Each structure stands twice: as structure tokens, then as C-alpha cells.
Fold:
Amino acid sequence: MEGIIPSLSSGAKERLRQQLHSCEDAKLKTRYLIIVNLADGHSPTEIGRLCRVSRATVYRVAERFTQAGEAGLVDRREENGERKLDEEYLATLYEVVESSAEDFGWRRPTWTREMLVETLRQLTGVQIHVATMSVALGMIGARRGRPKPTVGCPWSEEEKERRLSEIRRLVENLPPDEIAVYEDEVDIHLNPKIGLDWMVPGQQKQVLTPGQNQKRYLAGAQNVRTGELLWVEGEKKNSLLFILLLWKLVQHYAKAKAIHVILDNYCIHSTAQVEVSLATAAGQRLHLHFLPPYCPDHNTIERTWQDLHANVTRNHTCADMRQLMKNVRYYLKTRNREKREQHRSTAA
Structure:
């Protein structure tokens, strides 16, 4: 287009088209496409729409082409010298981000990009801009997330691993006529859990809360083979709720020679009421296997409760507990149906 790039001969235009078709670098190919379209008389607005770039980019590419010809289209960053974000730098950054800022002498426990820039400069001798640190964090897959609060297990590592190994062997070598389940309780609150959600620019979604909170509790048992979940509901999280679940297990798995229940050390699981229930004729088929203290990651039903919160209780809009529990039951019944279908297709 006259006035933006110099007039080109038919041979020069043909060469540009050949370079366009043979180019494998996406960004360089876009620059060739801009020049070819300018040479064909298209306007910067049309070219910007075609190439999905701004008009300013079209003018900038045209200026580079006018000043240096095809050489002006090549990425100039190759002149910047040795690449700073090399594998060694990124590997060091990965290790630093995994750690606390306090481990590197900072008085603040959480990282900022500026602190990372300075820490990496000290460790590698490489100085980069804060904006480049954002690029580096993206390259190692780092993200800003909410840390998970945990409590350390008071057992020794040997004792803890011994118990976990026993439970793993139980599950892996489970006889066909025996059942094993992971057991746990979950709280259902009428006041919704607040969680992350997508929002359009300028919007902050609001979650209405009923005000006076109400609670219901589920005790659940998840089959290690099928993933199917049995549960009972109650207004209190006590031993009676747990015992109701145990009897439901006994009835549901009436033909099982033994029912192994893998569970945490919550106080309601080891009361005198539970001991009396286990001492009955039916209760003797039940065998409780306690996980080490504060090891929720080894109780697979925890993930099911997380999914329940994500799909039902988080940011919910239910006005009363009746509707909320209806949604809870629908989700769990749908999940069980899907798990049964998956188990049948796998076994076929």
C-alpha cells in the first residue's frame, strides 16, 4: 500500500509469498502476511482483522520492513545475547517457588515477583525484569493458589508407613467374598461455602446467604472396588450417625464374609456405643482399620466430599435446607449410577 511500504516489483512480491508459505515460525509468518497484504493494497484495518493484530502492529511491521527489508521481519531478540531463562535458571526457580520465602532469609513467608527476581539473582547471577519473572513462572507452570492447611502426624515416619502399608495390602489382596470401604463424615451448611468462579470484567458475583446457618451431616462409606457410596444423614455428627452407617453396610453387603472399614481417628468412631455394636453377631463382620492421625490424603472418600462441595454446596443458591439436601442426594445418586456403569464396563 503506497505510503506505508515501498512499491514492490512482481518478483519481490512473489518472493515474499514463497517465504510466507515456507516459513514455520508463527510470528515471523504473521509479519510476512502483513507485508504481502500491504503490497496487495489492503488497508491496515483489514490486515489487522485478518491477522488478528492491532493496527499499530501493522504499522510497526511496515516500518521495520521499510528500514531493513526482509531482515527487519526477523525476531530481533536473537541480538539480546545469551538466553536468560535457560533450563538451569528455570530449575532453580522451580525449587525456590516450592519453598517458603523465609527459607531464603526474607522476613515475609510468601513470595512476590520482586523477591523472586532478587533471590534468583543471588542464586544464579542472572538479573531479569519483574515482567520477565511472570513469563518464567508461566514456563514452570507456577500459579497463585490457596495453600492447604495441614496438621503433622504425631507418629514416627516408620510407624506411619507401617500402618499405611498394612491398609494398602488389605485393599490390594482383598478376597472376593470380602468388602472394604473408606469411611468419613462431611458437614453440609445452609450458609454456602464461598469458592472461586469465573466472572466477566467489572463484575463481582454475589452469593446470598440465608443468615441463620443450619447444618446436616453425612456419614459415608466408599467401596474400594466399585467407588459406590453408601451414606446416612443426621442432624448431629455423633456415634449414633456412625453406627447407623455401620448397620447400613451390614444390610447392604449381607453376603460379604467380612466388611473392612478404613477410617480416621475421629472420636465418634471409638466410643463405648460403637464397641457394643461391634460385639453383636452382625457387628462381628465389621473390622475397623484406623489410618494414622491427621492423614486425610490417604482416605480416598475425602476427594468425593471435595467433589460434592464443588458441585453442590459451594456458592449454592438454595433458600432452605430441604432444597440443599435434595441437591446433595441427587448428586450422590447420579455419581453412584455413573460409578456402577463404569464398573460394569470395566468388568465386561
Notes: The first strand starts at residue 178 and ends at 189. The mean pLDDT is 90. Residues 47 and 53 are 8 Å apart (CA to CA).
